[in-house]
Amino acid sequence: MITRPDQSDAIPDVAMQGPGGTEIRPSDFRGQKLALFFYPKDDTPGCTTENKDFSALKDDFARADTALLGISKDPQAKHEKFAAKHDLAVPLATDSDAGDGLAEALGIWVEKAMYGRKYMGMERTTYLIDANGIIARVWRKVKVKGHAADVLAAARDL
């Protein structure tokens, strides 16, 4: 059984592909707080709403000295189309699909089932990381409605 990092643990410093194909890691944000929100798939209803909600609050997060990063397994080309289509303000990163990504390190790339079919998928999860790279708060199996505002409130209190 995988031990999932939780509150008070260091966030694993796994590289992802960031906007423009650049390498991005959680450690790139040291010195400020970071909200990492993992979502299953670009351009699906819940994921679109979640990304729009975080985008709408981006300036409020900035005032709380908190960077935002949305993460899924979708390729950067798909992220770019998704962001342009919905006017998203939050940068999106592509987690590795080789089995060695940040989602695997966090234990949130899990087996799911729909209509009797089993498949691997992202468990919608958000991590609030403090300025030293320590997980301050975790939201598992996120319900989208009101979630971005909840994360903002926690970031302000951190």
UniProtKB/TrEMBL annotation:
Annotated region (Disordered), positions in chain: 1-25
GO cellular component: cytoplasm
EC number: 1.11.1.24
GO molecular function: thioredoxin peroxidase activity
Active site residues of this protein: C47
Swiss-Prot/TrEMBL catalytic activity: a hydroperoxide + [thioredoxin]-dithiol = an alcohol + [thioredoxin]-disulfide + H2O
Keywords assigned: Antioxidant, Disulfide bond, Oxidoreductase, Peroxidase, Redox-active center
UniProt xrefs under PROSITE patterns: THIOREDOXIN_2 (PS51352)
An annotated GO BP: cell redox homeostasis
Complex formation: Monomer.
Family note: Belongs to the peroxiredoxin family. BCP/PrxQ subfamily.
Name this protein carries in UniProt: thioredoxin-dependent peroxiredoxin
